[in-house]
Amino acid sequence: MKKNSVTIVEMGVRDGLQNEKVILDVDTRVEFITRLSEAGLKRIEVGSFVSPKWVPQMAGTADILSKTQQLQKTGVIGKKIEMSVLVPNEQGMREAIQSGVKEIAIFASCSETFSKKNINCSIDESFKRFGPVMILAKKHKIKVRGYLSACFGCPYEGKISEAKVVKLAQRMHKLGVYEVSIGDTIGIAHVGQVRTLFKKLKKAVPLAKIAGHFHDTRGQALANILAAYDLGVRIFDTSLGGLGGCPYAPGATGNVATEDVVYMFNGLKAKTSIDLIKLKTINSWMTNKIQHPLPSKAGKV
Ligand code: HMG
Ligand code: MG
Fold it and tell me: Which atom of ligand 1 sits closest to the CA of residue 53?
């Protein structure tokens, strides 16, 4: 990656839509992915193989993969666009493999209570579940990304120690993931915290493998991204329009909006290769589909 370029990983289709009341059908989600790819997004998380009883919004992920892979074959979606899915356990991994994925993401929490609420097991148990997932990934040459949730605070436990986050990030990295995404699940982080935590993380995990995943509940996400950028972080997770949140983090709102982040990096001359005008068109289209305005500021101007 060039020094002044930034990678944006689009979360709208998964992290965004998983928390919307209106459930979008497979074809609409495929159109969303196609539009995002046309706007220049190169990495898109397109769904999850979790229990449809827990997250009904993500049902149909296998069909999404089959349709988008077809669209890649015919050149409608660029061949280089990387599409990934969330996988919590071996069952999800086996379904992902059957769907022909090239990339998955595993996810663990820094809070025991959040782990239990989100995936019904302890932190240790979640890492045990990743064992067979990683073995299958290696066998099938599937890239694996790792998320850590509640890195700056938990909706149930409050403060989370930085030492614990660093230790878990190292543990995730040692599993063999190619990137560790540091999650502010409930949008509680502030610049002071970002500075101290990311300075510690940089010593524990190679900087090029650290991503920032900021939800924007308190309107601090752009400032937090800038603070992480100043420390050398170059990969950020964002969601079109600021869609969504986490179904098991009460009160949490969506990820920081892709449009707002692209606007900020355009101003810094940090290349994202994303077309802001096209993002705004997707914003209007999506607002219509989910029947409420999206929080993004730059997406509406
Ligand atoms: P469980 O109930 O403990 O699972 O759920 P189980 O192993 O006891 O099995 C119970 C039933 O679930 C069985 O079905 C299994 O087949 C089924 P039944 O016999 O009752 O019909 N099952 C599955 N079905 C589909 N896919 C699977 C699967 N595994 C078991 N993979 C489980 C455990 C993890 C499945 C559940 O807790 C779950 O699906 N949780 C959803 C978690 C989720 O998607 N949360 C939101 C994403 S995380 C997030 O947003 C944070 C992030 O953005 C970063 C950040 O912001 O911090 C990544
Ligand atoms: Mg999230």
Answer: 39
**Stated pTM of the model:** 0.97
Task: Return the pLDDT at 265.
Answer: 98
- Kindly tell me if the per-residue pLDDT of 152 is higher than 70: yes
Report the C-alpha gap between 95 and 68 in whole angstroms.
Answer: 16
Instruction: Report whether residue 246 contacts ligand 1, using a CB cutoff of 6 Å.
Output: yes
Note whether 37 and 77 are within 8 A (CB): yes
- Centroid of ligand 2 to alpha carbon of 183 (angstroms): 6
Query: Which atom, in ligand 1's list, is nearest to the CA of 119?
Result: 37
> Residue 252's pLDDT is what?
74
197 lines ligand 1 (CB under 6 A): no
Q: Could you please report the per-residue DSSP string of 149-215? A: E-SS-BTTTB---HHHHHHHHHHHHHHT-SEEEEEETTS---HHHHHHHHHHHHHHS-GGGEEEEEB
Please tell me if the CB atom of residue 118 comes closer than 6 angstroms to any atom of ligand 1.
yes
Taking the CA of 133 as reference, the closest ligand is 1
Compute the distance between CA of residue 162 and CA of residue 148 in angstroms, rounded to an integer. 12
Q: What is the pLDDT of residues 217-262, one digit of tens each?
A: 999 999 999 999 999 999 999 999 999 866 676 777 899 999 999 9
How many helices (H) does the chain have, and how many strands (E)?
10, 8
In whole numbers, what is the pLDDT of the chain averaged over residues? Answer: 96
From CA 239, how far away is CA 83, in angstroms rounded? 15
pLDDT tops 70 at residue 279 = yes
Residue bearing the CA closest to ligand 1, atom 32: 119
Instruction: Tell me, in angstroms, the distance from the centre of ligand 1 to residue 284's CA.
Output: 32
Structural domain spans, the chain? 7-300
Give the model confidence (pLDDT) of 30-59 as tens digits: 999 999 999 999 999 999 999 999 999 999
Architecture of the domain delimited by 7-300: Alpha-Beta Barrel (3.20)
Q: Cβ distance 11 to 257 under 8 Å?
A: no
